[in-house]
Amino acid sequence: MTRPPRSGPEVDPGFPALKARIIARTGHHYYADKDDLLFDRLRKRFRVLGLTDSTAYAAWLDDRLAGGPEWAALEAEITIGETFFFRYAEQFAALRTTILPTLIAARSTERTLRVWSAGCSTGAEPYSIAILLHELLGPALPDWRLSILGTDISTAALETARAGIYGRWALRTLPPGERLRYFVPGPPVAGSGRDGTYALRPEFRRMVRFERRNLMDLIDVRAVQPLADFDLILCRNVLIYFEAEVVLGIVRGLGRRLTPEGWLLIGHAEPNPAISALLEPVNLPGTVAYRPWGARAPIAPAPSWRPEPVVAAAATFRPADPLPPAMATGASSRSEATSSDARESLAESSSDPLPDPRPEPGSHSSEPAAVLAQIRVLADSGDTAEAWRALRRAIPASPADPVLHYYDGLLAHSLGREVEAERAWRGALYLDRDFVMAHYQLGLLMLGLGRSAEAVRALDNAIRLAQALAPDARVAEGDGIGPYELARSAALARAAAKGKVP
């Protein structure tokens, strides 16, 4: 019996017209040369609606009653973004040390500040800004009128944002002490397969409001525009979807919404030289920000502090348990540059649309980076249990890849499975002793478990290896974090661990 051919863009006669229509309406030129990727997203909508092909789906979009809601669902589906707190540490360092202090000084008379997080997904970015402002203003906070707006096209993402409840995956870069300062631990989500939750404390949650908006409205004169001018706009890892002309139109629209002394931050992988004709670039440590040309408010100087060098010699790494011989086969030290370049879609452009992580029967991917990209779709949508199971199935195909073991540890830890997380991170280090983030995460885990001496040793290694990197490097698998920020975070955690060593 002949098996029927698998559906796909090459055998779906209605797909080319539907693709052109989607790009024209959404501006997502990103999909112009990514037919398989777009069709993977469309297939999910076909299954939800019980449809068979692009022609039937196009007719559904044309329906007078069903078309509007389905366009909204489709736009959310093809713009899947990863979100976690304090994503891209060096931009948040610039916000903490330069941008927000400059704005606070400039607005000290009016004591008003307006912030817009455009494309906020499930809210981690605007809430991170709320936490920063809460800390920077301190006792003066009640004297300020703060407006922090988060917008996105996905109604489901905005519902999560308004609830302010997150799994460990969204908090994975935060040390235990910061988690307790910002969140209240909560129970697992019953029946969802999700890990234990963390509820953002109400003093931060009430600082942010959310609305559904489409960035394409900025270049549509018929659309309703935001009424307020903003002192800070963040539009990070969204512009990658659009062609250059649309990007400039969106940036032009964002620039019109800035106050004369305002700031714009875009994704660190998204700068376009043509933007400099619209807004003035400001080079800050590890990132570039933009201001309206002619802004005269003095910029707060960035501090020159650096983490103190580790004095104690780092202990030689020893895995806790024997590992399968296959894991050691082909193991080699990874340089930061090659790892970062090879996995840029994971460490930097994690707002990219990704294929359906549940493959067709009988199919599989042998490329670890592609497997990780698929698994992160599940984790980012909150289904970390399924993501972890999928990763555990993928490891036997590439047992010597330390990055697979590193993400195995992240997902296991997000599920509260500390024993498996420790073993996974030690496995990653067995394969690559210079894996900075594995040392760092292992140190945080040991600190949380009260094993302070082991925490100090792991964090010593993380600091030593981070200090050996070039100042402008990115730490491999660090989600955009630079060596200075990683060393700083590890040094703070090490200080806490040292205080607990008997």
Q: Which percent range fits the helix content? A: 40-55%
Overall number of strands:
10
User: What order do the helices and strands follow?
Assistant: HHHHHEHEHEHEEHEEHEEEHHHHHHHHHH
User: Helix count?
Assistant: 20
**Coarse structural class:** alpha/beta
Oligomer: single chain
User: What's the average pLDDT?
Assistant: 77
- Spatially, the strands of the biggest sheet line up as 6-2-1-7-8
Shape: globular
Gap between N and C termini:
71 Å
Radius of gyration: 23 Å
Biggest β-sheet description = 5 strands, parallel
Low-confidence stretches: 1-5, 190-194, 304-366
What percent strand?
5-15%
Short note summarizing the structure:
The chain is of the alpha/beta class. 45% of the residues lie in helices and 12% in strands. The radius of gyration is 23 Å and the shape is globular.
What does this structure look like?
It is a single chain. This protein is of the alpha/beta class and 502 residues long. Helices cover 45% and strands 12% of the residues. A 5-stranded parallel β-sheet has the order 6-2-1-7-8. The protein has a 3-stranded antiparallel β-sheet with strand order 3-5-4.
Key descriptive features of the protein:
502 residues, 12% strand, globular, 20 helices, 3-stranded antiparallel sheet, 10 strands, 45% helix, disordered N terminus, 5-stranded parallel sheet
